[in-house]
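*** Fold description ***
***
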Amino acid sequence: MATELFFFTSIPNLPFPLIKFPKHHQSLPLFSLAPPTISSRFKTVSSSKARPSSSTVVVHAVQEEVVQTPNSDSKVTPASSSKLVLVAGGSGGVGQLVVASLLSRNIKSRLLLRDPEKATTLFGKQDEETLQVCKGDTRNPKDLDPAIFEGVTHVICCTGTTAFPSRRWDGDNTPEKVDWEGVRNLVSALPSSLKRIVLVSSVGVTKFNELPWSIMNLFGVLKYKKMGEDFVQKSGLPFTIISLCIYCIL
């Protein structure tokens, strides 16, 4: 089943500062959003009942469906312990919020980071039963060892870079390498048993040749994100694509 979520949010100036989270996480006041429109190949629904944060919407995509038990009106939601969520890009701006939200929900998580030491700086000391950290770079297929995905039920890809040339492009950290090749490498390494991949993308990817998105796409970021989205959609894996407006301030 495929799902795409489109909504706008305001993100503080990038790059994000490192945020220290306490060992025992509490609910954090995150960003307010306009009511999201959730569209899939089956239906389109507009919700105005709540204004979820970007991290809340991302984490919701990995929540198990409520199960109706046979011959009963009761509903059972599988325990969080049944899930193991791998987050790629968990030290970035959106990724930090996603990981904090997963931890606050007691959902077992595994981070794929270029610099594993950042995990302790950002999220404090965590028990391995709660948070595991693996070193790897999605731009390098050799880093994506099958052992990294052992036991993983869901994957959230929060990797990204700036839309326009900046210091964050140093070390070949360009949109082509991150948003296209990195996503392609990650998806290609995922096991077929995966329950869902959630890709955090951007609005405007289907209109990158039209104003105002063509301005945002001057250096190809939306084009490469579209290529990444297309690869996810053709992968055969259950997926959710979340389109955030995160480049408007760059």
